[in-house]
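#lab-general

N.A. 3:47 PM
ok so I finally got the sequence cleaned up, no stray characters, all 480 residues accounted for. can someone with queue access submit it? mine expired

B.Y. 3:52 PM
send it over

N.A. 3:53 PM
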Amino acid sequence: MRRRSKAGGESVRTRRRTTAAPKRRSRPKALRTRHLSSSAAKDAKIARLAEELNEALHRQTAMSEVLKVISSSTFDLQTVLNQLVETAMHLCQADSANIWRPEGGVLRLAASCGHSSDFKEFAAKNPITPGRGTVSGRVALERRTIHLPDVLADAEFTGVGYQSRGNYRCHLGIPLLREGEVIGVFALTRVEVAPYSDKQIELAEAFASKAIIAIESVRLLEAEKQRSRELDDSITLLKRERENKLMNVEAITASIAHEVRQPLAAIATNAGAALRFFDKAPPDFDEGRAALNRVIADTHRASAVFDSIRALFRRTDQARQPIDLNEVALEVLHSLRGELHAHGITTQTDLAAALPLVEGRRNQLQQVFSNLIQNAIEAMDTMADRDRMLRLKTELHSPDAIVVAVEDSGPGLDPSQLDSIFEAFVTTKAQGMGLGLAICRRIIEGHAGQLSASSDGKTGAQFQFILPIGYAADAIDRAK
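B.Y. 4:20 PM
back already:
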């Protein structure tokens, strides 16, 4: 700005007054140091949190993978245990990891990672006994987590065979518990004397819990499979029982037709004979009366057949009585004497004297004799080139058993069919029903005996059954 001077009027340049800016003071050196330290601390904290987050994500991923395998309906337990020990070893910064399972009072190695083959072979031959001498044994004994920073510094540690082959000093053991019972031990070891941190122990215990889940899942799955198998067996048994009942109905019907045929035929024959005797001039009343008596006997025999078949297929036990097998054999031979004579068959008996009694159902044993003799008659009826001989023999088989044999001189049986001929509806005869021998075996087995057949396929067949003796006396004593 210019202004005029008082004297000469000339303008005089003047300076505008300005306010000087305050001079900035520099920070003290100590303050600058604290600022840098705070920034570094924040960076370190961020890095630490990032590392912890990364570790947490890594652990979560590992756990998720294990749970995913466990949740699979077809997972393999060994695969899961192997994955658990391997993952836990890496995340807990261990040098090796094992899972031990109880078997027969000892702990056996079930899964291992990081150990040599020498260690595994030693473990296979030397299972761990629960006790304080080893970490895993101590865990199984006390049912709690055991952490030894240096096993060689522990006065109670005696597992030097494992330690020398595993080359470890630090040992962490965690029990696998189900309702208080030890179902395994999860173990982590380190070569150096380097204790596990609390977080690492907590992580190891988390892996141990996953091992429990896997083991329990397998146990429950196996239990479910067992229940399913038992249910299937029950259903199969019920179906078989139903089929047997239906078969029994068929067998009863067919057996009645099969067994009653003989006494009915005898009734018709004797009734016809009686008529002929009465038609004579003069009538032969004595012979007619004898024929009618035989009709009555055959009628009783037919009734006995019904009773025997009904008792055979009935669940409730029937009254038994002491029986003389020689007497039963002679009774049946006498009732069939007309048929044996009509077919030109000679009978030979060899009955042991003073044969002990057996306990049984008389009608059923008569039916066995009758069926076996009738089968022999039908077998020999086809033979014309040899004598027809029926042999019936009884003897002591052993101090406590009697054997009865019925032998014929017929064409014999195919040796390959000797087992199948006793099955229901299996027959070697063109007009046979396949029930006689099946019923005979059922009767004999119902008397705690055995029925069998033998033949060379050329010179006749022999059927024999064995019945226990002394059974009658025992049964009578029990009744008293």
